[in-house]
């Protein structure tokens, strides 16, 4: 190559790195921090102990003064002291959840939203609903897996 002023052009080799075909796991993860699809399959999740009853999801809407809605979503387990009672409660868990839903509707939204009182109020309502469904008092605990109030 010659320039117009008589000098020579330097010859440069330009290289381009081609990335196609190279596996770049760090780039795949960027922005998509996902676990492999087989990470959380059913066989890897241990079964609940025999004295634990998982209630159906309790979802309700509470009317606000301005006409809008507050929402409550509760995932809960019952933990009676013996397996026989757990088996009986498992058979009536839909009834327990429905009664709890109605009892919780009567609670104060601010109380349910409170960090200190929300879980306690939900547990009391669910425990009461279990007693109503059983027709008798029961010894055991209500375990709140998640309580979402918004």
Write the layout of secondary structure elements.
Elements (H helix, E strand, L loop, with lengths): L24 H5 L23 E2 L3 E6 L5 E12 L2 H9 L1 H13 L3 H5 L4 H17 L5 E10 L1
Antiparallel strand pairs: 1-3, 2-3, 3-4
Describe this structure in words.
The chain is built from five helices and four strands, in the order αβββααααβ. Helix 3 (93-105) crosses helix 5 (118-134). It has helices spanning 25-29, 83-91, 93-105, 109-113, 118-134, and strands at 53-54, 58-63, 69-80, 140-149. A hairpin with a 5-residue loop joins strand 2 (58-63) and strand 3. By secondary structure, it is an alpha+beta fold.
Query: Helix and strand succession?
Result: HEEEHHHHE
Sheet/helix structural class: alpha+beta
- Overall spatial form: flat
The counted number of beta strands is 4
Number of H- or I-type helical stretches: 5
Structural descriptors:
alpha+beta; single chain; flat; 4-stranded antiparallel beta sheet; 4 strands; 150 residues
């Amino acid at each position: 190559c010659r320039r117009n002023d008589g000098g020579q052009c330097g010859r440069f080799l330009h290289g381009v790195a081609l990335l196609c075909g190279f596996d770049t796991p760090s780039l795949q993860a960027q922005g998509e921090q996902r676990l492999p699809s087989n990470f959380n399959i059913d066989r890897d999740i241990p079964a609940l102990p025999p004295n634990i009853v998982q209630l159906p999801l309790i979802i309700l809407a509470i009317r606000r003064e301005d006409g809008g809605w507050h929402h409550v979503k509760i995932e809960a387990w019952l933990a009676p002291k013996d397996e026989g009672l757990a088996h009986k409660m498992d058979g009536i868990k839909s009834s327990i959840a429905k009664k709890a839903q109605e009892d919780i509707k009567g609670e104060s939204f601010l109380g349910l939203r409170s960090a200190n009182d929300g879980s306690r109020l939900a547990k009391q309502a669910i425990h009461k609903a279990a007693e109503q469904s059983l027709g008798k008092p029961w010894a055991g605990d209500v375990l709140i897996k998640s309580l979402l109030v918004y």
